[in-house]
């Protein structure tokens, strides 16, 4: 695929039905770029190749849809976007990754929507975003979560399901990471008896739950009891 990226461009919206070739390296080294939207339908076996010299130092918004990242390519991309404020992975997938590492002080909005094949959830999600205001997570529960410095979080939307009952503790760690949230929309479609106590959400003033009632009664009611105080 051939592509010319002018150095003065500030916004790119690239949508491809099928991605059979690697994306041009210039796409990931455009210093003037402020907003990048990239959508591709990848057939089985294709991959997104992120160059080692990726540098999007002025990028404020990154929207990725239907992309497949292999190995450490997803972290290489994120770690070189130093001033991001809006980051979205919509129906993306990762393979052969040990962790997804998002540590961006400027980040205000984060949307993670990942789909995985069975067995591909054996990794850790790391988030360090002290200025994050909005967080949406739509995914199977993975091996682990390390969420820190999320004291600015105002609204969270969590849509989760369980690929393995071995990850019950991981789910608790996810909720512990967003315990300062003020508005929470939670969707859980399975009855998984949590082995650890659901954290109390002291700042919560708005809560919506969609799922099986018995899961709410057994695991969640005590955590959002402040709404009834």
Automatic annotation (TrEMBL):
SUPFAM superfamilies: L domain-like
Classification via Pfam families: LRR_At5g56370 (PF24758)
Residue ranges of every copy of the F-box/LRR-repeat protein 15/At3g58940/PEG3-like LRR domain listed in the record: 19-134
Gene3D superfamilies found in the cross-reference section: Ribonuclease Inhibitor
Family matches, as InterPro entries: FBL13/AtMIF1-like (IPR050232), LRR_dom_sf (IPR032675), LRR_FXL15/At3g58940/PEG3-like (IPR055411)
Identification of the protein by name: F-box/LRR-repeat protein 15/At3g58940/PEG3-like LRR domain-containing protein
